[in-house]
Design brief:
Elements lengths: L2 H14 L7 E12 L8 E11 L4 E11 L5 E12 L6 E16 L2 E17 L4 E16 L22 E12 L1
Antiparallel strand pairs: 1-2, 1-8, 2-3, 3-4, 4-5, 5-6, 6-7, 7-8
């Protein structure tokens, strides 16, 4: 786990002890993601920050900013806007459904990739009385590539050509997160 992620989670837990639960939630998460195009590789790790604003008793909007670390040593940035629906009547254990769309950007040694995605999923969040929240979510989505660098590898050197960090395909991801509500 990176120092940034550890420090973020420590600050969130410290701040949550003094927070009063309200309509705004901010937090950080760790996870893994894998797309169909690279299903024979290990999943990529993710770090994310999010902010959520309650629009009503059971509906919220959320903005996620995620860094995806790939096996090739490059990273992609993913920004997703979500609509989150809280299910059930328990104030502490809250099942959730969500759907959203976003943009994807990656910079590799030979150019930049950009794309967009649509996703949906389900999760479970625990909300403590003081405002601390932890949760787990499973995402399913589809990504399209809008632009990529024009690279034409030489026939003699195709094994030196690394695939891009973003693939146009379906993907799945899982993340654990912690946050504070104020």
């Amino acid at each position: 786990m990176s120092r940034f992620a550890c420090a973020s989670l420590a600050l969130l837990s410290l701040a949550a002890s003094n927070a009063v639960a309200g309509p705004i939630t901010v937090g950080a998460g760790l996870g893994v993601t894998q797309d169909e195009a690279s299903s024979n590789q290990d999943p990529f790790s993710t770090l994310s920050l999010f902010g959520r604003i309650a629009l009503g008793r059971s509906i919220s909007t959320e903005l996620d900013i995620t860094k995806v670390n790939t096996a090739q040593g490059y990273s992609a940035r993913v920004i997703t806007g979500l609509l989150v629906l809280d299910l059930g009547s328990n104030v502490h254990w809250v099942p959730q459904l969500f759907a959203g769309l976003g943009i994807d950007r990656a910079s590799v040694g030979y150019g930049d990739y950009s794309g967009h995605h649509f996703e949906g999923g389900a999760g479970l969040e625990y909300r403590a009385d003081g405002g601390f929240a932890i949760g787990a979510r499973f995402h399913l989505g589809g990504r399209s590539i809008d632009s990529e660098p024009a690279v034409y590898p030489l026939a003699c050197c195709t094994d030196l050509y690394a695939p891009n960090t973003l693939q146009a395909s379906q993907y799945r991801s899982f993340d654990l997160y912690a946050g504070i509500r104020f």
